[in-house]
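Chain X:
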Amino acid sequence: MSFPATRLRRLRRSDRLRSLVRETRLDLDDFVYPLFVGPRTEPNPDLPPFGRLAVKDLPAEAAELERLGVRAVMLFGIPDEKDEEGSGAWEEDGVIQRALRTLRQSSGELVLTTDVCLCEYTSHGHCGPLDGDDVDNDRALELLARTAVSHADAGADVVCPSDMMDGRVAAMRGALDDAGYSQIPIVSYAAKYASAFYGPFRDAVDSAPAFGDRRGYQMDPANVREALRECELDVREGADALLVKPALPNLDVIRAVRERFDLPLGAYNVSGEYAMIKASAARGWLDERAAALESLTAIVRAGADLVVSYWTKELATWL
């Protein structure tokens, strides 16, 4: 049929009609809130989600999140001290290990996921031990696997490798299984790009590289076929779910991964994406809530089943 029999505006006339035929909906159950845990609580007045919490203050934060209906958190650690190998990542009394034990005792509702990487723990800020000026991929695998097991020991429900070392999923799966944690799922940052949108996060966890950059192991933002190869390898190695990071510059990648693979798919709505809208809203250029909801809807519409986002707490009140 053609105009005037077909009038697509008919179902847009009111909010109730638009809601009735809406194709994509946001559900708080699908969102994960990042938490930064450090030696002491240090608020961030400019970007509150990037403040650090001491371990002792985690139960109160967990109670607030549960009250709001948030279902899952992702933990990032800032250690007291750093070294060349990042040994604070797997220490039994490390900051994330203490955080997990505390939350496991105080919170029975939250799904506890952990970011598994070494960059926050190494003195040079790269994601593994160095061989000259390059990360030694194969040495890093043993340390990453050791870190994943230490997180499982401390009570993690899910481990999420974000380092982009070749073979890390297989190394972690083998180590977890050998340690008796065959039930712990691995959500792999399978397509993590060397992005310009990570700035506020690196400030929050003090993980900027001391030299160079991470383009030697994180992906070139120009590539999508390579992202599918990364996903395929991680699936073969035993990943239980895949994740694309960052989200908004890579909606096409999320869609391509969704169409190729049947695994649950996550997307990380990263710090720079959040901060841009916050800064624009502060200048009066954007309606923050409308822009945030539109952005998050786009990520889900592209194919993400779960979204890691700094808007999760605010989303709990908006929805």
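Chain Y:
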Amino acid sequence: MINISMKAMIDIVIVNWNTGNQLRECLESITTANQAGFSLNHVVVVDNASADGTLEGLDDLDLPLILIKNKENVGFAAACNQGAKGSKSDYLLFLNPDTRLFEDSLRLPVSFMQQPENEKIGIVGIQMVNENGTVSRTCTRFPTPSRFFSKMLGLDRLFPSAFPSHFMSEWDHQESREVDHVMGAFFLIRRLVFEELDGFDEQFFVYLEDLDFSFRVRQAGWRSFYLADARAYHKGGGASDQVKATRLFYSLRSRILYGYKHFGWFSATLLMAGTFFVEPFPRLALAIWKRSGREAKETIKGYAMLWRAMPQLLKNSWNGGRQ
């Protein structure tokens, strides 16, 4: 049971990689957020070998800040686990550096989690808005092989009613509700749940590590909740906008790993075959239709990286999608 008589503690973990001034803006927004009803224990920034001077000049911020500087990019999931290690707080908030908090971005979700009737909620996300103030549709259903295939072929965009995406784009995200998965840009987790599940699976270098965690949370009997009463700004894209071919590679790689971990060998192998031998052609056709030589080049480069990674992906498949 939750002891609501005690003041909750929260640690915030931010993984950074060449995000420029966005990190400082994110940290500054934490200083102005309402902290009534809880105590901010630590803000841990794990830097994955940035080369843009992102970490310079952060010492003047009024925050209980801890900086961890990795000598190489160890991946997003591993860096999140690194930042959460040793935490004694009640809650862990994994926050993207391209977000900015508003006054009640922390107070409301922590208060929600503290209510006894919500003691089986393991993860909470909040409403995310873009630079125009438009609410982003960020929650998803758990993916299935058929949903991945429809996305692969573009059917979810051509015929959305017949081939719904795992993204809940048909819902305006204006009301609070239980969902399968909330966006990892603002991912508030009970620390005990995080430890129970051994954190994020580090085989996901980046992408789908949060979705995999949400699925394991559901399997363990916990639930995820989208709280529309609180909101934060999220730019989206972030540092991955700088490396489009690499982003494509890791996105496809994570999808294949997710399939072998959760779909069974046969479905996962079909998914991998479709990713390698079917999906490149619609992607290239779209680039040609858009007359974008750069997009075609980035697509070819991303798939070349995936082909080179194929032996390791096959090794993972033999291990049931686990490390």
